[in-house]
Write a structure and sequence with these properties.
By secondary structure, the protein is mainly beta. Helices cover about 15% and strands about 40% of the residues. It contains one helix and six strands; from the N terminus they run βββββαβ. The termini are far apart.
């Protein structure tokens, strides 16, 4: 599954793209999730936001999960989407940017 569509607590739609295994992450800002694609649904393990996607590998480690990312340039947009997704997936671990 190359793309997943998620819905935040507000009902807003968000599309995330699969990051290929072994692919380098550019040092750009964005939102990310770690998900497990099931036959008829997606299980969200991590909801995260960062100013540098090249540093999310450690923060996003979850057994069996794959990283999906959404590029966002505007800080206010990133943070608003992150809050909406975190509220929409309360079972997921929340990462507010890797250290």
């Amino acid at each position: 599954m190359d793309f997943i569509d998620l819905t935040g607590a507000s009902g807003g739609p968000y599309r995330f793209r699969l990051w290929p295994d072994g692919g380098g992450h550019p040092p750009v800002a964005g939102n990310f999730v770690v998900a497990v694609a099931l036959p008829t649904s997606v299980e969200i393990l991590v909801v995260g936001v960062t100013t540098d996607l090249s540093r999310i590998e450690t923060a996003a480690e979850e057994p069996g999960g794959r990283i999906y990312r959404r590029l966002n340039v505007a800080r206010a947009t990133r943070e608003a989407e992150h809050a909406d997704l975190a509220a929409g997936y309360p079972e997921a671990r929340v990462v507010d940017g890797p250290a």
